[in-house]
Amino acid sequence: MENGMHKRPIIPGIASAVIWGLGQLLNKQPVKALFFFFMQALLVLIEVLTGQYTDLSEGYTFRENGGFFIKGLWGMVTLGEVPRRMSILGLTDGDHSIVLLINGIIGLIFLLIFVSVYIWNIKDAFRTRKLINKTGIVPKTKDYIDELWSSMFEYIVLTPSIIMLVLICLMPILFGMVIAFTNYNGAHLPPAKLVDWVGFDNFINLFQLPIWSRTFMGVFGWTLAWAVLSTVTCFFGGLFQAVILNNKRVKGKKVWRTIFILPWAIPGMISLLVFKTLFNGQFGPVSQFLMDIGLTDQRISWFTDSSSPNLARAMIILINLWLGFPYFMALMSGIMTSLDKEIYEAAKMDGASPGQEFWKLTFPLVLSATAPLLIMSFAANFNNFGVIYFLTQGGPTNPHYQFAGYTDILITWIYKLTIDNKMYNMASVMSIIIFLVIGSISAWNFSRTNAFKDEEGA
Prior knowledge:
Layout: H1 2-6, H2 10-18, H3 22-26, H4 30-50, H5 62-65, H6 68-78, E1 86-87, E2 90-91, H7 97-135, H8 141-151, H9 153-157, H10 159-178, H11 201-208, H12 210-245, H13 253-265, H14 268-278, H15 285-292, H16 309-337, H17 341-349, H18 354-382, H19 385-392, H20 410-420, H21 424-448, H22 450-457
Antiparallel strand pairs: 1-2
Helix pairs in contact: 2-7, 4-7, 6-7, 7-10, 11-12, 12-16, 12-18, 13-16, 14-19, 16-18, 18-21, 20-21
Pfam families: BPD_transp_1 (PF00528)
Main location: membrane
Keywords: Cell membrane, Membrane, Sugar transport, Transmembrane, Transmembrane helix, Transport
């Protein structure tokens, strides 16, 4: 009867669910049993050695006695219970909500890894017993390892990189996202004060409170306009220069290409510094020159005039055009020189004019080849912190906005919310919105490009 029960796959599965590796031991696979039991022992040891389990005279509490996993989950759920207070001897011991949250996220990640091993342990015991019942042969551990190595080689080799990626990239991203569901701001700064979970209140406030909704809609609208205009101007500016340089009547093409590529070759920060000095509203030479020739009777505040915010926006777009068009010019020049000349010869034989050749042949072919890079440029400009903040710092001042100016885009507004105003929760909400917008637009556009379609067809 006992042997008959052991032949039922559910028995080793239940055994491994109670004690990791016990099902493998029942299946007469001691090496695998030892591995899974070691993983369970490691889980227990980490919890016991990092907790206070030797002194339970006053009872067990998650805060005082919990180890890495239990206290981590407790801290992530509660964000602390005892804030630090100022006493005669200094700050008292207490909970730091942000430290507890970070520890909880790390603990949860590692706990999920152990849970995955636990599920693997149960499934392996169940499947192995089914295989034994079918073949009557106990699989050798060496054969199992060889099969695992051949079928999951790429994942095994990448395991160290995946772990580092999770800890260095995924963990900060998760932390930044969950902050959006707390009240972590200047009024709730640990360790003197605790942070609380507030659910979707921050998202609701962003769209319902007038001061926040007005600022968000204004900044978001300008961010979209800036991303589109800066991308389109650089694209067509580069296309215009590439068409001119590829014309047969242009002499000294190498010299002109060298001159036009200089704005891209020079570090962008240096160019921005030069432009900021040239268009300085107080002592910039451009304003002085306009006054000297009689076009204006006073200096122009190119970046700081609140009565003419579109002037600052136009200047930013023009300066960004200077910085960005050489990249597209060089890219499109290479594409145009590689286009099949026979296509143009056939078009001329059909009576196509130079304009028709450009709009019906050159432009579609160039656009098809540069579409993925165009999307990447849009995403980069959507988060182009350097150009905006270095030139205007988000100004001119807008009295109707909350911690933002006329030229602020979402990323510079996030910077001000965090560094200047300690509104970490609202900044996290903005970060999530940026991710959703950029991720959605990029995914949608990439799916429509020929490169993506060709990969799907392959």
